[in-house]
Structures are given as structure tokens and as C-alpha cells.
Design a protein that fits this description.
The protein is an alpha+beta fold. It has 2 domains: about 100 residues, Hect, E3 ligase catalytic domain fold; about 170 residues, no CATH class. It is about 50% helix and about 15% strand. The chain contains 13 helices and 10 strands. Helix 1 packs across helix 4. The longest helix is centred in the middle third of the chain and has 20 residues.
């Protein structure tokens, strides 16, 4: 049976994205209204979901064929017995926009501003509003880059109770946190679906080795490649008055693992199937 409250949110997100509203705008509105992600129980009875939306949750929702009335069986999506929430025309329109976004992301030339604001789109205040990139006018040939709470832009300095953050310092802090996790990736991998990591076909030692090797090379990466890695793995950075909370993207982590195993196509195929199956069951 369709959960009408969930269906209403899903239809709203699909419709707004199809109308070319930005993910940031959709996200800000959902969080201001205190909308939450779908809640469900795993096979072991553990309650999942029910959290504030983030960018990864939005994109995962927009790509979830379950809402089209399909189920993942074997290694393909097939027509399911449950009622669809999104009609095929709306799905196709959203899928086309996502594909266009993907192609633009691959071909867009990097810029200095893009590199300094590598966390654009994932920075949020504890009030749920996005932190806006802000570049000062040049002073003695130098520009200063910050993330500023949107409430302060609207109401003035100090209105949010949150700090303005220097983009360069923030990049360094997030990059360091990311490198620390990659150097001891077992903690990060433990968040992947259990049907994947507990499968006898999942070579944990190989995956750990590849991630550690990547961390060892991270200092040699050009800024554009560092930005890609951060964009891939960082799902959300929440700014509080006295701390930062960094959430990592499991979808991004899985994509990275598959990239690092490109020389083992049989593992890539198996891991992708196991991961897709687990996600289709809400794990």
C-alpha cells in the first residue's frame, strides 16, 4: 500500500525538478518545512530513514525506479506489483534532465572560483538553510572567499548565530577529514549495506587496500581531481555555532570503489548487483 504522505513528497520533488527548479532550492524548502526522508524497517527490524533531506537523498529519490512501479530482480529492473507513485512521462522528463546535468558536469571546464568553492551545494547551516558562497571584491589584488549563512544575507550580519567560514580553511579541514577516513577505510565501509559487505564475494581486504592506496596518492592530485573526490564523497556539511558535522555519501563511496576496481570487471559487476539489490530493499 502506498504511503500517501511519502507519495506526496516524492511527487512534489519530481515535479519541481522537472520544472527545472534547482536541487538547492528544493532542498532548502523541504528542510525549512522539516520534511523527512522515508522511514522503513530493515529485515532485522532496525528503523532507518526519517532524517532531514540532503542532496544525496534528493538525487537518490529521483533515480529510484521503485517510484515508477518497478522492482529490482536478478540483475534488472522489472515491472512490479505495487502501484507507481510517478507516471512514466514525469519520470522520463526528470531522467533526461539528470542525464543533461551529468554531461554538463563531465564537460564543464574548471575555474578558480569552482575550485575554491568545491563544497558549493553541500554546505548548510544548522537551521537547514544553505550556506552561500561569497567572493569579496579584490583588495590589493586579492579576493577572499567565504561561505555565509543565507539568513545573514537576508537579515544582516549576526542574524543566524552561525559563523562565516573562510572557504580555503574549510576546504583544508574537510579534505583532511576525508583523507583520514580513506587511510583507515574500515569505519567508512561498515556503513555499506550488509548484504554487500557480508557477501563471501566481497573482497574487503582488496577494497581497503585500493582506498588506502588512493589516500597515499591524494597529495599528488591536482585541485580539479581533489574537487571531484570531495564532490563524490561528501554528502553534506552542517555548520553549527561551535562545530562542523560532515556526512559522507554512500552512493559516492560505492561509485568510487567500483572505479578503483575497474581492472576487475567481474567484481564490479557483482558488487553493483549486490548493492543495487540491497538498496532496492531499503537496506
Amino acid at each position: 500500500m502506498v504511503d500517501q504522505a511519502e507519495a506526496k513528497i516524492v511527487q512534489e520533488v519530481f515535479t519541481r525538478y522537472a520544472n527545472k527548479e534547482s536541487v538547492t532550492a528544493i532542498l532548502n524548502d523541504l528542510n525549512v518545512r522539516e520534511m523527512k526522508t522515508k522511514r522503513w524497517h530493515t529485515r532485522t527490524g532496525k528503523l532507518k530513514g526519517g532524517k532531514a533531506f540532503n542532496r544525496n537523498a534528493i538525487y537518490t529519490l529521483l533515480k529510484n525506479r521503485v517510484y515508477l512501479g518497478e522492482v529490482f530482480y536478478g540483475d534488472t529492473w522489472q515491472e512490479g506489483a505495487h502501484e507507481s507513485i510517478v507516471d512514466r512521462d514525469l519520470w522520463s522528463k526528470v531522467a533526461a534532465l539528470l542525464e543533461l546535468r551529468s554531461r554538463r558536469g563531465e564537460t564543464r571546464a574548471p575555474s578558480d572560483e569552482g575550485s575554491i568553492f568545491m563544497l558549493r551545494g553541500v554546505m548548510f547551516g544548522s537551521d537547514g538553510r544553505a550556506m552561500s558562497p561569497w567572493l569579496s571584491s579584490a583588495y590589493k589584488g586579492r579576493k577572499y572567499a567565504y561561505y555565509i549563512p543565507q539568513k545573514e544575507i537576508a537579515e544582516g550580519a549576526g542574524a543566524s548565530g552561525l559563523p562565516r567560514l573562510q572557504a580555503a580553511n574549510l576546504n583544508d579541514q574537510v579534505w583532511l577529514s576525508l583523507r583520514q577516513l580513506l587511510s583507515t577505510p574500515e569505519q567508512l565501509l561498515a556503513h555499506l549495506p550488509k548484504p554487500l559487505i557480508e557477501s563471501p564475494e566481497f573482497d574487503l581486504s582488496l577494497v581497503v587496500k585500493r582506498l588506502i592506496n588512493l589516500e597515499g596518492l591524494s597529495e599528488e592530485l591536482f585541485p580539479v581531481h581533489q574537487k571531484r573526490l570531495v564532490t563524490q564523497l561528501i554528502d553534506r556539511v552542517t555548520v553549527h555555532a561551535d562545530r562542523l558535522d560532515i556526512d559522507f555519501s554512500l552512493e559516492g563511496l560505492m561509485d568510487l570503489i567500483l572505479e578503483l576496481l575497474a581492472d576487475r570487471p567481474e567484481l564490479v559487476r557483482t558488487y553493483r548487483q549486490l548493492y543495487s539489490l540491497a538498496r532496492s530493499h531499503g537496506l
